[in-house]
Write a structure and sequence with these properties.
Blueprint: H1 3-11, H2 19-44, E1 55-67, E2 85-94, E3 108-115, E4 121-127, H3 137-147, H4 153-168, H5 170-185, E5 196-198, E6 202-203, E7 209-216, H6 233-244, E8 247-255, E9 279-286, H7 294-304, H8 322-338, H9 349-365, H10 376-393, H11 461-469, H12 482-495, E10 507-511, E11 519-520, E12 527-528, E13 530-534, H13 561-564, H14 568-574, H15 608-631, H16 637-664, H17 668-679, H18 685-694, H19 718-723, E14 733-737, E15 744-749, H20 757-765, H21 767-775, E16 794-796, E17 799-801, H22 803-813, H23 819-825, H24 841-850, H25 859-865, H26 876-891, H27 902-905, H28 907-915, H29 918-925
Antiparallel strand pairs: 1-2, 1-9, 2-3, 3-4, 4-5, 5-7, 6-7, 7-8, 8-9, 10-13, 11-12, 14-15, 16-17
Protein name: Peroxidase
Cofactor: Ca(2+)
InterPro entries: A_dioxygenase (IPR034815), Catalase_sf (IPR020835), Haem_peroxidase_animal (IPR019791), Haem_peroxidase_sf (IPR010255), Haem_peroxidase_sf_animal (IPR037120), Oxylipin_biosynth_metab (IPR050783)
Amino acid sequence: MTETGQHEQQYERYEGGSPEAERLMFERFARELMEVQVKNRRAGGGGISRAFHAKAPVAVENARLRFHDVLPAALRCGFAQPGAEYPATVRLSNASGIRQGDGSPDLRGAAVRVRVSEDESHDLLATSYPVSHARNAREFVAFAKAMAGARGPLQKAFGLFVKLPLAVGLGTANRMRRNVRAATRHTVNSLASETYWSRGAILWGDAGPVRYLLRPAPGSPPAATPERSDPEFLHREIAARLAKADVVFELCVQRYVDERRTPIEDASVEWKDAVAPAVAIARLTIPGQDLNSAEARAAARRIEDLAFNPWYTTDDFRPLGNINRARKAGYQASSAHRLGLRFVTEEPLQNRLLDPPMAAAFTLLNRYVPWHRLPLQLSLLNLVFLRKVLRRLNLIDTEVREAPPKAQPVPEPIPERLRSERSYDGTYNDLSAPKMGAVGSAFGRNLAPDYRPDQFDTPNPVTVSRRLLYRESFVPATSLNILAAAWIQFQVHDWVNHRRFQPGGRQVEVPLPPGSGGWHNTPGGPPENVMRFAENEGLEQPGNRPPILFGNVASHWWDGSEVYGEDEQTARFLREPDGGARLRLEDGHLPSGSNGIPLTGFNESWWMGLSAMHTLFAREHNAVCDALRAEYPSLSEERIYQTARLVVSALIAKIHTVEWTPAILATEAIDIGLHTNWQGPPKNWLNQLGLWLFEAHSLTGIPKTLPDHHAAPYSLTEDFVTVYRMHPLIPDDFELREHHFGQRLETVGFLDIQGGAAEARIRKTGLANTLYSFGIAHPGAITLHNFPRSLQQFERDGEIIDLSVVDLVRTRRRGVPRYNDFRAGLHKPRIRSFEELTQNAETLARLKEVYRSVDEIDTVVGLFAENPPEGFGFSDTAFRIFILMATRRLQSDRFLNVDYRPEIYTPLGIDWVEKGGMNSVILRHCPELAALMPRGASAFAPWRAVRPSDDAGSDGVG
C-alpha cells in the first residue's frame, strides 16, 4: 500500500460507510450550495457571486512564496524544499456570500495559488478563525442554507434560531452559533494583520496530516484606526500599506498528534498550539505596489474569474477530512455556477407545495384509469407528474465516478471557440463537465440493470424470433409513411452506437433450436448449428461488476453527427476543399466511397431511405451556408460552417420533437405536450394556470429555459436504446414511382436498395421521386409478427445476421430487465397472465408455447405485444422512456436552451429554425412536390398519390 493509501486508511472515515455513498451526498450538497448562491444574489443584487467570500478588498497576481533555507527534514516534500521560491496569486476577502460593507461583522479569508510549474500548482485556503463552525459538510451546508439571503438582523436571527435548529438539532445549532459569534465578534482593522487558519487538515507527504496557517510576519506594522463607516476601508487600508512597503505573512504548519486532540474528520475542534505547535516554514510576500493602478485593477478582475479549490494540488498535499472532501464538488459547482458554466433552476414555492398531494392523487387515480383515458386537460396534467416521477426515480448515472476525491491540476481554460460552437466529439457541451455526453461516454440507465448470464439463451432467442417476430404478412402503419421509418433510423444513428469487436474478434454464439436446420454465418460459409455475430466491446469497471457498461461511439447530444461526423478529421473531410463552409456534393448527391456507400457522418446499415435523409440535410446545410454568407458577408467560412451546424442540428431536433413524434403518437395530448416542449403551452388560461401551479418551468418552452440535468449527469440510456428498436417500420419491398404522372418505375426488395446498391438507385430514381415514393407508402406497424424478413438474413461487416435475434440477445446481455420488470420499474402494474398482454388467440398461444411465465417475456417482445393507447404507434411502456428522455435531450443541451440565441446562431439562424420544419426542408430542395404533401399535417403523414394518367409513357418519363 502507498503512503497516501496508509494515511487514508488510518485517518479518514467516510460518511455513509463508503466513498461512493459520501460522493452522492456531496453532489447533493453541491446543488444546494448553488441554490444558496441564487438566494444570496437576490439579497445582494447583481450577478451570481461566490457562495462564500464574495467580496475581495485585495487581489494580486505578483506575490511570492519562499520556503525558509532551514526546513525540518520531515516537512521537506514535493515543492516544499529549502530555499525554493514560487510566484503566487493572493486573494484576501470577506467571508460572506453577500457583498456588503467592510465594517459588517464577518470572518475574513485568504486564498493563495502557488504556481510551481506549468503543470503543478497548490491552492491554500484559510479563514480568520482557528476552527470551522461546522464539524462536517452536512453541518456546513445546513448553516449556509439557513443563512442564505439573510441581510438584516431579523433575517439573520430567524436563520440562526429557527432554520438552523430545525436542520441540525438544538445542541448542534447552539455550538455553531457560539463559534460564529466568537469569530465575528473580533474587530478587523486590516487584512494584513489577521491570521488565517486552514479549514481542516491536509496531507504533507510522509509527515502525515497538518493544518496550516498564515500569520503576519514579525515586525508587521499595526493598523491605523480605520474609518469603519467607509464600506471599502479594508481595501483602502491595505492599499495604503502596499503603497509604502511589502505585506508579509508567515506560512506555518501544525502537525497531527492524535485523533482526540488533533482530529481529522471534525473540523470544529481547534488544534491548539500547546498540543501542535505552529512551525514557520515559508514567507508569503505581497510586494509593495499601487493597488489602484490600471494594471492592478486588471489583475484583480482576472483573479475574480479564478476558481480556487484546495484539491488543485498534488497527491502529496491532498486535503483530508469530511469537510475538505466535500469542498472539491462544492467549490467546483459553485464556481461553475458563478462563471455561467453550470446552472440551477429553482422550483417555485407553489410547485413545491402542490407537488406531493397531486402526485399522490394521480398515483391513486392511475390504479383505475390510465393517463390516456382521462379528459384532455387532466391527461396533460397527469403527464406532467409522471415525468416528474420518472426524473426523480429513473435517471441512473453509470459512469465510474471519482470516489474518494483526488488531487488534480487547475483545469485548463475552456477553448474560447467552444463557447459558441459545438465540438466535434460532444465535449464541452456542459462547460462545467467537459466530458459529459461526449464520444465514449457510458450509456446510462433508466432502470437498475438485471444481469442474468444463466438466462442469456432462455428461451432460445431464435425460437422467440421465429415464433413471435417473423413477418408472416405485412402489417402496415396506416397513419404514417415510409419517410417516418427512414427518419428514425437517421436519428438513431446520431444518438447511439455500441462499438462491436471486429470480425474475427470476440463473438456471441446462439445455439439453434433442434430441428431448425443450419445457419450460414458468413457469405459462402458452411452451415452451422449456431448463429455467431460480433460481441459489443464493454467498458472496464472496478471490482467484480458484470460486463454491462458500454461506451457510446456517437456523442449523446443531438448534434447532427450522422451528417457531420463524430471527429474533426471526418468533419473536415466531408467539407468542400480548402476549408469551405459547404458540404461536398456531386450533382446534388453525396459523394460515394470505394464500396459505393456515400461518404457522410455515419453510413452503417445504409439503404435508400437513409440516403434520402442524408442528401436532404446535406443540401439543407449548404442552403444555410449560402443564406448566412449573403446576410453576413464579413463572416469567415469557418464561422459560417459552425453556425450552419448549429442551425441544422437544432432544426433536426425541432422536427423530431414537434413533427415526427406527434405523427407516431397521434393524440391531442401528445401533440400539445410536445409543442409545449419547444414553444410553450397553448395561450389559454387553463393550460397557463395549470402549469403555473404545478410546473412553472414549462410555461416558456425548453429553448427559453436553463440547462437542467435533473437527477443525474446527462447521457442516453440502454433502456432508451431498447425502446427505439423499431425495425418493424421497414417494409420488405418498395414500389418506386415518379411524381409527375404517378407511373410505377419499378418494384424492389429491401436488399435491392441497401448497402452499396442504394446510392446508384437513388441517383437513377431522383431525390424527388424517391421522397414521393416513400411519402405515399406505409411503413410497418411496430407489433409482433412484423419484423422485416430482409433483416432476418442479411450481410453486415462480413457477417450474415438475423437482426431480430441480435436485438433480443443484445437486450439480454446488456442487463435490460425483462418486460414485466421493465414495466414495473416504469411505474406500471405488473401483468399476472399472458391474457393481460394480448387477446389475440394465435399470439397468446405462441407466447405460452415460448415462455414459461410472464416474467420471462423478453422486453422487446412485450413492448411489441402490448396494446398501445389509441393513436399510438408504440406501447405506453415504451412511451414512458420517451417522455422522460425526449425532454431531457433538449433540457440538458445548452445549445438548445441557454445558448439557443441570436448571438450564437445569428438572427437568421434562429429564424431559420423557428420558421422551418420537415415540409420546408423538402420544399426548399424539391419544390415540385408542394401539391403532393399533406395539408395541415407533417411530412411524415401519408402524401397524396398521383393517379397514373392514361397518356403517360410506360416509364413515367416524358
